[in-house]
Input
Amino acid sequence: MPTTKVFEQRSVIPTSMSRMIAFHEDAQALYRLTPPPIFLRPLRDDMRSLTSGEREFMLWFGPVGVRWVARHEPGPSDTSFADKMLAGPLAYWRHEHIFREVPGGVELTDRVTYAHRPGLPGLLTRLVFDGLPLRILFFYRHLRTRLALAGKP
Output
């Protein structure tokens, strides 16, 4: 396997643990957390819980579509879950969603362990799933989570 990298984004969201988990359990959460200009089209949803099941979808970057299959599994704590890419554009992708109660709300940590494929496919995924684009993606996701849990669309 190619060398993995780890990306991490943390934010304290002024909410309760039960509301944070309920937000992520909502079938619309993934759509709400996908930033434009990326569009997500579901292909299959076999989710049984945040820690069990699979989803298959297409991510559209303009006219370019990328098929992604993810399995949900337990995360590193009782208040976490992970989605692991089974099929998709990268050599490896495991995204942990970790929630921890702290003064002022819930600390949301997104930890992504990932690796790019060699050659041209890896060059292309570095343009979308690395560095600045990855920071922008998770800045957006944390902002959308904060707004949603504050009752804003």
